[in-house]
Design goal:
It is a single chain. This protein folds into two domains: about 120 residues, Rossmann fold; about 70 residues, Arc Repressor Mutant, subunit A, CATH 1.10.10.10. The protein contains eight helices and eleven strands. The strands form three sheets. Strands 2-1-3-4-5 form a five-stranded parallel sheet, with helices on both faces. A three-stranded antiparallel sheet has the order 6-7-8, with no helix packed on it. β3, α3 and β4 form a beta-alpha-beta unit. The radius of gyration is 19 Å and the shape is globular. The two termini are about 35 Å apart.
Length: about 230
């Protein structure tokens, strides 16, 4: 079984990697929320151990993004003891919640329980945009019906689309998108963003002039609306 450990505590990640690796688990690690999403897409883990307080994108954000396209089991490991944090995590899609510090025997038992009901290995991370299917693992957009001819996107268009799809129905400000796609030094270059959003809409929207899925929030940013 392949396990993704998503936590910014380097000491804990090392300890878990050694302990779980010694018991035959294959380990993948991520130190922030964005890297965790990328690892789920590219590494296809069977189970995710997720910290709530990570940089770039917190654990709840990761959970909400994952549940837009995958049912991979998620076990939250958190130092937060407030019952509200547990409720929020479970409501966002977590399968279980363990408070730090924890006993390794308990963690192993919970991993075995989740492993017995883990998502099918054939599950593919895909998102629908109208009559288009976005395969995040293959980095390919095709029409759900017809010839299946791929819609070609540039690397930058892909990166922008991935960020939007990772936050369904959430407002992504211009500054957030620019920082995620182009880096912190481009936080004010809104011209880049308008250009690439226009290109994405031409390729993905049924009517680019009246976008249904890649929606503009006037004066603020953009939102991916799954239902259109």
């Amino acid at each position: 079984m392949k396990i993704l450990i998503a936590d910014d505590d380097a000491q804990l990640v090392r300890a878990l990697s050694v302990t779980l690796g010694a018991r035959g688990y294959e380990i993948v690690t991520a130190r922030d929320g964005r890297a965790a999403l990328d690892a789920v897409i590219t590494q296809r883990p069977d189970l995710v151990l997720l910290d709530l307080g990570m940089p770039r994108l917190d654990g709840l954000g990761v959970l909400e993004a994952l549940r837009a396209w995958t049912q991979v089991p998620v076990l939250v490991l958190s130092g937060r003891t407030d019952s509200a944090d547990k409720v929020d995590s479970l409501d966002a899609g977590a399968d279980d919640y363990v408070t730090k510090p924890f006993q390794m025997d308990e963690l192993l038992a919970r991993l075995r329980a989740l492993g017995r009901r883990r998502a099918s290995a054939e599950e593919v991370p895909t998102v629908r945009i109208g009559d288009l299917v976005v395969d995040l693992a293959a980095k390919q957009v095709t029409r759900a019906e017809g010839s299946g001819t791929p819609v070609r996107l540039t690397p930058t268009e892909w990166r922008l689309l991935e960020v939007l799809l990772a936050h369904p129905d959430r407002l992504m400000t211009r500054e957030m998108l620019l920082t995620e796609v182009w880096g912190p030094s481009h936080g004010g270059d809104s011209g880049y963003l308008r250009l690439y959003m226009a290109q994405l809409r031409k390729k993905l929207e049924p009517d680019p002039a009246s976008p249904r899925y890649l929606v503009t929030e006037a004066g603020m940013g953009y939102r991916f609306s799954p239902t259109g």
